[in-house]
Every structure is written in C-alpha cells, then in structure tokens.
Amino acid sequence: MKLPNIVFVFSDQWRYQAVGYTGNQDVFTPNIDAFAQESCNVTQAVSPCPVCSPYRASLITGQLPLTHGVIVNDVPVKTSSPGFGNIFKKLGYETGYIGKWHINGQGRQAPIPKERRFGFDYWKVLECGHSYRNSAYYHNDDTELSYWDGYDAYAQTEDAVSFMHRRIEKQKSSSNGKENPFLLVLAWGPPHAPPPYEKDSPYNQYPDDVKDLYSAEALHVRDNVPEGDVETSKSLMQGYYSHCTALDNAFQRIVDYLKASGTYEETLIVFTSDHGDMLGSQGLWKKQVPFEESLRVPLLMHIPEEYGGDSGIYDDALFEPQDMIPTLLGILGQEKPAYLEGFDYSQYLLNKETIAEDSAVLSIYQPGGQWCRDSDGGIRGFSGREYRGIRTKEYTYVVDKNGPWLMYNNKKDPLQKNNLAYNKEFEEIKSNLHRSLLRKMSERNDDFLFGDTLVREFGYTEEYAEKVNPGEKELCLSNWGIVQEDVHHE
Predict the structure, then answer these.
(1) Active-site residue identified among 68, 102, 130, 302
(2) Which of 52, 128, 244, 372 is catalytic?
(3) Does the annotation count 102 as an active-site position?
(4) pLDDT tens for each residue of 38-80
(5) Is 52 a catalytic residue?
(6) Cα–Cα distance between 141 and 228 in angstroms, integer?
C-alpha cells in the first residue's frame, strides 16, 4: 500500500469551545465543521502543559517535557529524538514546515539552523511572532528576514498549496504515481492575541474580509465568566472569532486544492491547536491554567479509507501532543520507536479498539508570563502556581504544592463551577484520582519540584537569558517565572 501524503495544520491558542461543530453558535467555522463530518473527531484531545513551547516540543519530538527540556516558553529543546521530520524522511517522505516554530530558544527573531529543524527540509519559519499583518520568516538557509504578504495565515496557506502542488504534480508524473509522499506542517499564529499580551489586549490584526462579521454586543459568553468580566470577554471574542473564521477560510483553501487535484481522499489531514484560551472564564485570561477552556483543543483526523479511516465521534482518547507521531506511524503500519514516549491510538481510530482507562497528566512546571505568581487570579484567587493533575473523561483533579487544589466532574459540571476537592462526599473518588496521579508521575520520574528549582536545574538563568537572548532577556525571564526578587526554594 502506498504511503499517503500528510498535511498537518495547527493553530495557536484555538480552544475546543470555539468551533461550530462543538456547539458554539456564535463562531462561524462552516468549513472546519464540514471537515469534522468527514473525519475522526477526537473530542477529548488536551494540551497537558497548556502553553506554546512545551506543546510544540512534545509534538515535534514525541516526548514529554521533562525529557525534551521545554518546560516553559522560549527555551531550547534538548533531546536525542530524531524528531517529526526525520522520522518520516526515513520512510521516504519529503518534508516541509511553514509558520511558527517556538522551540529553538535562541531568540524569537533569530534564524534556526538546519540541524535544529528535526528533519524539515522546505522551511519558511519564524521562531515566534504575532504581528499578523507584518509577519516575518526565514526561507530555508537565508539569514535575512523575509515578510509574508498581507495577513500571514492567508499567505502561508497559499505557500502550503504551492508546496503541495509541486509535489503532487511530481508524484503524478512518476512511474508508480507516488514514489515520494510528503509531510507538510502548517503552523498558523492566530487566533493568539498579538502583543502586548495583557489580559485585555485586543485580538486585532485579523484580515479585512472578516472585519465586519462579528458584533461584540451580540456574542454570548460562557456561564463561568464573572459578571464583571463579561464586556471585556465579548470585546476580545469579537477579534478572536474573526481570526477563527479567517483560519476556517484558509483551511478550506487547502481542502479545495486537494479535492481539485484528486488527492483529498488519499491524504491524511490533521487539524488541531496547541492549547486554548480562557477569554474570561473563571475570571482568567489566556492559558496555562488547568481548566477546560485552556486545556482542550480541537483534533480532527481525516484518514484515507484505504488505511481504514472512518468518520465519527471518538471520545475515549485523552490525546496529547506526544501521541501524534506514534499514532501517525501506527496508522501507516509502522512500529513505534522506543524513544517515543507517546501512546499509539491508531487501532482505536481505525478499528474502535477498546482503550483501557485513559487519562492525561496535567502539568505546569513553572508559572510565568501572564500567569506568574503575582498575577491577577480572578475572583477565586487562581493566581500562578506550579501544579500537577490528571484528567479523565469524567474528572479533572489537580494538586499544587499545598496539596489538593481542584476537582471537577466534567460531565455533570462542564463549566467547572463546583470545586469538589474539599467535598467529603467525593473523598474516595479523589483518593483514587490522587493515587493514579502519583503513579503516573512516578512513571515519568516527576518529583514535582518547585518551579524555580526546576528551571535552574535546566540552566534557565538570568545569565543564560542574557547570553542567548540579549534583546529579549526580560521577556524570557518573565516566561521562565524569574524575577530579581525571586526566592529560590529548596
């Protein structure tokens, strides 16, 4: 059986609750909604460390943060894993990556050397940037920045279509029709807020074709947004949803091209995101926190029928980023290498094979950035802290350094308004979840160290920030949770 082309599309900060197919009647995403009807809809996908760089490093390496070293934003991935591109190149794939990277940790505007690209050959990438109408990138080995024309996600998508077209035409002209399959990753920056990243910074910079689509006054907030935050939440959602609709348009451009080329049905297509966005739920903003709006992400997988793919709801898999490479390899009938730490869900997706009790481990190793220790914790005082937790289909259970912190029944209380962590009636369930969490932490060699201890063990210090990111030292220190008066825990 010929290997399928693979197109992997993911956005930045697009929460599960912000697409039409999950029940949101305000946001306009008709194309992704239609794609969901033709795909495996993995409804319990989570971002276990819900911040950009840790998710991306786990996706690219197939490993956990304490292995690859990316426990906070803006630090370099440290791993012996060959990585996403190299693994598929070994199978004969041509590889390409377009968009945001954010795991090199040598400066957000610095070029990324070829040996740090994990096997992706075609390369139009910036480490990190959120100026969507003035968006820079490096092309292959160029050392000077180039700029996308107009709204970057649209320009990046057109470049992705050009990449696919060149390779599909090459495949059609080859003797067997598909000697050189391709793996293309398209990593959009929106709907992530542009700078200054404050809780009420506008999600502007969306393209003109969606600028009049939403009225903030007409939008609905989730019922866990405190009354005092409703107007701010609606204002932010107007821009956030505008980006979502723009990306929905861009995604359809990819689908339309693949259908026009006659290759859609034989292409493995993935759509997902790196983490969500609170947008005022629980009185909180952005990400890092262990609530549904921050943790859950959309995940759709269009698997070619010849590989056993089918459409439908797949709600038993607590899918995490390190599971992606093993699962894709499993779909292709390939063995999972021992260095990959993720789970292979391929037999569940292809054959509905029963999964043993499944759960995801939630972690913030060191709070930083918008959720540093002195951050506004909303009406419930949920300010920044390191935590570990476990999420099953039914429950979310989280501990901080003081002990049990949060526990929610996600089925009966999907808005997570009733904290059961101190409710004596749920003591047995809590104890079982706690034991499961401790067992999984032990399996991962996670000693739940204080965050400032851990970042220093990994070498993320003021001296390191000054050396590798002299122009962005303060940004790095903020993201690493380091301030001058920081107290070192023992």
Answers:
(1) 102
(2) 52
(3) yes
(4) 999 999 999 999 999 999 999 999 999 999 999 999 999 998 8
(5) yes
(6) 50
